[in-house]
Amino acid sequence: MKKLLALLLAGAMALSMVACGGSEPAPAPESGEPAVENVTLNVAYMPNWGSLWAVATADAKGFFAEEGITVNMTAFENGPTEIAAMESGAMDVAFIGPGAHKLCSTGAAEVFLLQHVGDGDCIIGLNGIKTIEELKGKKIGYSAGTSSESILLEALKSAGMTMDDVEALSMDDTALTTAALSGSVDAVAAWSPFSLTILANAKDATDICSNIDFESMASPGSWVVNPKWADENADLLVRFNRAMFKAMDFAAAATTDDAVAEEVAGYVAKVVSSDAATVIAQRYDGSWLTSAQVLDMLNSGELETLYANQQATFIANGALEAEGNLAPAEFVLSDLMVEAGK
Question: Rounded distance, CA 223 to CA 244, Å?
C-alpha cells in the first residue's frame, strides 16, 4: 500500500510540473553536485571557422547540454554590432575578432574567454598592386571598427603611411567582396572566409600581408559579454566556459588531424549552411587553443600581456584614445576561466 501511495504521489508531482510549465533540470554531474537549471543563451557569432570552431563543436557534441545550456545562435557581420546587440539585451554573449576589442577598453564589453589567436585578416592587392608601398594614393576597401581596419592601419604604419595617404572606403563584408571581384578598388582589408573567396576568384589578386607579418598585431579571438549581464550571471558564464573548454580540447587538433578537421568542419558548415569542403579551408586561420594553454597563459601573465599589447596597438594607430581606457586586468574576467578549468 505504501509503495502504491508513493507511486501515485510521484505521478501527481510529475503532472503538476507539466501543468505549471516546469522544465526538467539538467542531469546532475557525475560528481554528485546538484542539477543545474536549464537555460537558453542567445549567442552572437560571425559565419566563419574562427568564430564557430569551438562553439559549434560544444553544441554538436553535447557539452552545452551537459551544463544545462541551450544555445540560440544568431549571425552578425562584425563585432561592434554584436556588442550593440548585447547592450540592447538582444544577445547574451558574443564572439568578437581583434578589431572590436577596443570596445572592451572603453567598458562596453568584458572578455570572459580567450578562444584563439587569429591569423585570418589580410590585405589583398588588386589591379596589379603587390606591395604595401604601392597602396599609396590607391582606393582601398575596409570595414571600420573591425579587424579589417586594424590590419589596414598596421600595414600602412609599417610603410610610413596613414589613412590620409590612401582613399579608404568603409563597407560591409558583402560589399568588400563585390568590390574586390569587380576590380572597383585597388586593394581590400578582409577577413576569412571572405578573403579566401577573393583570393580564389578575383583577377590578379595578391595576398600582401596578414596578422603574423606584424609583431605588434595581437589578434585574440574572444568571447565577450555586457558587464552588467556578467555581474548577474557569473555562474552561467563558468558553465559556458566549461563546455567550451571541452570543445576546444577536442577541436584544437583540427590543423594537424584531418579526421578532427573534417568533423569540426561538418559542425561549422551546418551552422552557416555551407559545405564542409568550403569551411575546412579556413582551419589554418589561427592558433586554436586548448583549455590547458589558456590556463597556462593566465598563470604566466601572457594572456593579460596579449590584450595589453593589442590595446597599445590601438592607441598607437589612433583607433583608441590614449587616455581613459580600462586596463586588461579590468575587462578580462580571468576568474571565470580559472573556475571553469578546475
Answer: 10
